[in-house]
């Protein structure tokens, strides 16, 4: 089984910074895509940022220039550095990963973390 464990959420004032971490563990052969989603109260879950194993990065327009996603492939870890936080960034942030669990299978599965609360006060 694969488990994603998140950390780094909390309370911060507008303009402050937080760094989220997500570590994948278990039966992992390779991780294709790791990323972050968020869901604010009363809204749909939206993509924040993703990073592929080949190094391609993608960001939502609302966070470009403020958030940075990075990966440590040796540690099966993805980070989200969040700077210049705004109250509208308040949401539950979820880590996700598309993971291949064997060397011979083409199939990969999508896993989700438990979510971590980020609250930005004005």
Briefly say what this structure is.
This protein is mainly beta and 122 residues long. It has strands at residues 2-7, 10-13, 18-26, 30-39, 46-52, 57-59, 67-72, 77-82, 91-100, 109-112, 116-121.
Any overview of this molecule?
It is a single chain. With 122 residues, the chain is mainly beta. The protein is 0% helix and 58% strand. It has no helices and eleven strands. The strands form two sheets. Strands 2, 4, 5, 6, 9, 10 and 11 form a seven-stranded mixed beta sheet that branches. Strand 5 and strand 6 form a beta hairpin.
Secondary structure layout plus pairing:
Layout: E1 2-7, E2 10-13, E3 18-26, E4 30-39, E5 46-52, E6 57-59, E7 67-72, E8 77-82, E9 91-100, E10 109-112, E11 116-121
Parallel strand pairs: 2-11
Antiparallel strand pairs: 1-3, 3-8, 4-5, 4-9, 5-6, 7-8, 9-10, 9-11
């Amino acid at each position: 089984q694969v488990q994603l464990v998140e950390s780094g959420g909390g309370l911060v004032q507008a303009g402050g910074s937080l760094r989220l971490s997500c570590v994948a563990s278990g039966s992992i052969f390779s991780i294709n895509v790791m990323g972050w989603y968020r869901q604010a109260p009363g809204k749909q879950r939206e993509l924040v940022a993703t990073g592929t194993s080949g190094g391609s990065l993608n960001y939502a327009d609302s966070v470009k220039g403020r958030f940075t996603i990075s990966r440590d492939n040796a540690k099966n870890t993805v980070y989200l550095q969040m700077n210049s936080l705004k109250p509208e960034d308040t949401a539950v942030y979820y880590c996700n990963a598309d993971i291949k669990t064997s060397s011979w299978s083409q199939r990969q599965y999508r896993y989700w973390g438990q979510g971590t609360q980020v609250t930005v006060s004005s």
